[in-house]
Please model this.
Amino acid sequence: MNDTQQHCDVLIMGGGPAGSAAAALLAKKGFNTVVLEKDHHPRFHIGESLLPLSLPYLEKLGVLDAVDQIGLKKYAAEFHSVYHEKSTTFAFGESLRGDYPYAYEVRRSEFDHLLLENARAKGATVHEGWRVDALECHDRTLYSISARNDQGSRKTFSARFYIDATGRDTFMADALNLKERNKRHKSAAMYAHYQGAQRSQGQEEGNICVYWFDFGWFWMIPLKDGTMSVGAVCRPDYLKQRVIPLGDFMDQTIALNPLVSKRLEGAQRMGEVTATGNYSYRSSEMSGSNYLLIGDAYAFIDPVFSSGVHLALNSAFKAADVIEAALAQPHQADTLIKSFEREIDRGLGVFSWFIYRITSPAIRDLFMHPRNIFKVKGAVISVLAGDLFRDTRIGPSLWAFRAIYYIKSWLMRHGFVPSISR
Model:
């Protein structure tokens, strides 16, 4: 096997949305950028629902028109409660600014391939079928990484700056012992694609639907080709009690929610059910002197707000700016990286607050009976739309919503307000 050395300005590990976006931006800025992607695209991936505020990123990348060709427009998020026997629709056009009233549902194999090819077209060198498996790192400085391709050939890569965008593989977090399970939110998931599921008509066809049930929640995401992505995010202890084949267990779990069951009457599952555990995690560090962890390589909470791709794109754009400035003025790198970390953690924190509580009776009740006092409904919709990184004045209304939640939760716990549940 050959052992060769390659040097570049920026080495990006991972060719998903975060890695591909960062590669396109950095290559366009004139940096010698190399991407190592373990798979060959197109390849299957879950997480098909985009957020409205991702559209400006896609436009800047030059791929928005292409996404429009492969995607189904999504104008709202729907929440359905068997406990309340009702549902509510949060239209993105009712956010505090309302300037991005829709997003897209996309098949990730197509979307991710599009972004990776865009990085290649912008000048990045892309190596598919190369898995990063070793690194040399001392005192938070990365000196090199090693990768092996499908044929067993090995290369060592060195760079002026590195990005870990390996997603849920969390290469650097695992290698440097930085990965920590999220103690505040433990969840597992199983999911599959279905043909023949009941779909809404007209503008509502592309809406993502969330259904609560006793052990967690379901997603139903319609795709442009008629496929429906269906997943159940549940407590790990529920998934661990499985004693039957996974496909049968998925059917059994779907039967626990009559609303989901009705939409899947007569539908055919396409392929096998996939299950994943340890859904929520975070790295104890996001950076070193010459590397950044972005997107899911740094942290992942829960897909209920479809935040994964949005956070990946935002971190890619911020990372590209930080790296450009840091390479031009190395003495300012530490300050720039700290600013990057604060913004990423702030956005993650807003999503996390809701995610930690999304199955609580108080949140279910507030979502089923939304009111716009203190503009709280507009603020919640702004979060659902991903409007966390602009100058939208969302903070006061979110604090008001949180105060209402804490009061309602306390009243429910002490029996002053009935808790609607089954």
Notes: The longest strand covers residues 3-13.
